Amino acid sequence: MSYLSDKASRLEPYVAGIQPGEGGWIKLNTNENPYPPSPKVISALNSADITRLRLYPDGDSKALCRAIAGRHGINERCVFCGNGSDEVIALAFQAFFSGKENVMAPSVSYAFYPVWGEMFDVGINRVPLTEGFQIDPGSFKGANGVVIANPNAPTGIALSLEEVESIAKNNPASVVIVDEAYLDFSKEAESASAIKLIGEYDNILVVRTFSKSHSLAGMRIGYAAGDSGLIGGMFRMKNAFNSYPLDALAQVAATAAIKDVDYWNETRSKIISVRNKTTEGLREAGLQVLESQANFLFVGFENASELYEYLLSKKVLVRYWNNPELGKFFRVSIGTDEEMEAFLRCVNQFLKEKQTKQQ
C-alpha cells in the first residue's frame, strides 16, 4: 500500500549526478570546484568555539548577510541566506510563484525548476531556446514570474547584464529570479551580476551559491540579493518552514570565504584558463563546444552516449542526459589541469579507436 499523497506520486524528482563511493575516479559531472576552500575558511573553522554548538545558530545569519552585503556594495537588508541556492530558490518559488500560471523558464535549463513548479503548484511555461542554445530575452514577456540561470545550465552560455535588465523591464509586475550559480566564472564576473540592478528594479531577485566559486559545496550555503521587500518575503517563507536554516559553522565558513576576494579570484582564474584550454583541445578533436562562461563545457558529438560510456569505463565521470533534446551533448565540469588533460587523452583515444574500427 502506498501512503504517498497524490502530489508526491506525480512528482518526477531531480536526478543528481553520480557520486562514486570509491576512489580512483576523475569526477567531472557535478560542477564542483577542483580546488580546496580558502585557507582563511580553514583558519576560521579551526578557531570556531565548538562549545557553542549546543546553542541554536543565528536564524537570520546576520554576520554573513553583512559580509555578503559588503562584498556587493548593497544594504544588508537586501540579503537572505539559506541551505544552498536550491533551498533559496525553492523558498522564492513559494513566496512569489505559488499557485500562478505562466511562470517562464528556459526549455533547457536547470532541471530543478520544473520539479519545484510541480511541487509548489506553479505553471511553468518552458520558453524554447534559439537554435544556438541561447536564451532569447525578447521571448520573456507578460509572465507571472521568470526564472533563468545566467550563465544557463547545462549550456554555459551567458546573457549580458543589459539582456537581463530587459527581462526585468518587460515583466514589471512579476518577480524575475536570476540564478547566478556560475557567474563568477564569466569573463566579467564583477560587473556582470544583476545585483547591480537591485537599486533600479524592485522585481529582481539574484540567487547565488558558495558551492562553486567558493569551494563549499559540502556545506550547502546559498543566498539571495534583492529589494528589501522581496527579501522580507523570503524571510517570511523561511520562518514558516525552518527558522534556523544555516548551521553555525556554515555561517563562519561562508563569512570567511566571501571576504577572501584574492583567493576567489585566484581559483576562478585557474578554472577559466583550464576551461579555455580544454575548449581548444575538444575543438581540435572535432567536437562541438558551446561558448561557456561557467565552470563546465557543453559538448556536442554525434556519438555522445557512446563516448559517455567509454569515459565511464575509464573511470572518468561526465554528465549525460539520454533524452531527445540533449542526447547528442554531454557536460563536462572543469577540473584541475591534470584532470582535464587525462579527460582529453581519453576522448582522443576513443576517437582513435573508433576510426580504427571503421577502417
Describe the protein's architecture and organization.
The protein is α/β, with parallel strands linked by helices. It folds into 2 domains: 6-36 and 262-358, Aspartate Aminotransferase, domain 1; 39-260, Aspartate Aminotransferase, domain 2 (3-Layer(aba) Sandwich), CATH 3.40.640. The protein has 12 helices and 13 strands. The protein has helices at 6-10, 39-47, 62-72, 84-97, 112-119, 161-170, 189-192, 228-239, 248-259, 261-284, 304-313, 337-358; strands at 26-27, 79-82, 103-106, 124-127, 146-149, 176-179, 204-209, 222-226, 288-289, 296-300, 316-317, 319-320, 329-333. The strands form 4 sheets. A 5-stranded mixed β-sheet has the order 2-8-7-6-5, sandwiched between helices. The protein has a 4-stranded antiparallel β-sheet with strand order 9-10-13-12, with helices on one face. A two-stranded parallel sheet has the order 1-11. A hairpin with a 6-residue loop joins strand 9 (288-289) and strand 10. The mean pLDDT is 95.
CATH superfamily of the largest domain: Type I PLP-dependent aspartate aminotransferase-like (Major domain)
Rough outline: globular
End-to-end Cα distance, whole Å, is: 57 Å
Topology as H/E string?
HEHHEHEHEEHEHEEHHHEEHEEEH
| CATH topology descriptor of the largest domain | Aspartate Aminotransferase, domain 2
Strand order of the largest sheet: 2-8-7-6-5
Helix content: 25-40%
> Cα-atom Rg, whole angstroms?
21 Å
Judged by helices, strands and strand pairing, the structural class is alpha/beta
CATH class of the largest domain: Alpha Beta
